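Researcher: Sequence recovery benchmark, item below. Answer with residues only.
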């Protein structure tokens, strides 16, 4: 099974890395692909350029878990980055393999606003990581949940796509927006993300550093 961890990664931080590792181990994934978003369709544009976000991801994953990979296909495409297109593109390379789109519960709640969001379940499972966040689901998402949620992770390996599974992960209240605020206010970001990423932010003057 392949995990697909999409994000803006503006910047990547330990909240991403630690939870990706926990999901990888819990679901016995063969690999986790970090997919940096090219041009986000559903949120404000990132503070760092696509090239800078990719560099930070490379720095963070250098020497990291051998199952972690970077998949930069969204950065190669022009126009808005739609997850449904990304998954269709990955699916064209892995016809049988179970694909698990890994999302935080905040991102999951927002799924009904995504382009062709229902088609995502034809292409991948959705694995939802709990975060310190009280979700409020739209009716359409509640209906999909009632049809597709599975309690047993073994169900994910039995079919290539279509299930929703909730995975407990360490609750790390780290977010990229908080990190950007800390940098802007000249506060320390130590222990929130890899040192190499912190050094890159400082050297390139990102986020007002
Ligand atoms: P921002 O604060 O700018 O919104 P973010 O920290 O949420 O950014 P993203 O790159 O937008 O980071 O998130 C990518 C994915 O990682 C999303 O599915 C998000 O829910 C998840 N995620 C981010 N931080 C955490 C965390 N601390 N714990 C679990 N999941 C996380």
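Model:
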């Amino acid at each position: 099974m392949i995990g697909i961890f999409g994000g803006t990664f503006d910047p990547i931080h330990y909240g991403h890395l630690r939870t990706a590792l926990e999901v990888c181990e819990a679901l016995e994934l063969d690999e986790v692909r970090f997919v940096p978003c090219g041009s986000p369709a559903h949120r404000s544009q990132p503070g760092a350029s696509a090239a800078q976000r990719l560099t930070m991801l490379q720095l963070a994953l250098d020497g990291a878990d051998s199952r972690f990979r970077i998949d930069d296909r969204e950065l190669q495409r022009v126009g808005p980055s739609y997850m449904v297109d990304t998954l269709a593109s990955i699916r064209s390379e892995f016809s049988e393999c179970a694909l698990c789109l890994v999302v935080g519960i905040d991102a999951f709640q927002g799924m009904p606003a995504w382009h062709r969001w229902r088609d995502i379940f034809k292409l991948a499972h959705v694995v939802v990581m709990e975060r310190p966040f009280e979700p409020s689901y739209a009716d359409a998402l509640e209906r999909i949940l009632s049809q597709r949620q599975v309690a047993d992770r073994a169900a994910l390996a039995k079919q290539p796509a279509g299930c929703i599974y909730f995975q407990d992960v360490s609750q790390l209240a780290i977010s990229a927006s908080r990190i950007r605020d800390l940098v802007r206010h000249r506060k320390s970001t130590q222990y929130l993300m890899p040192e190499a990423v912190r050094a890159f932010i400082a050297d390139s003057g990102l986020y007002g550093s």
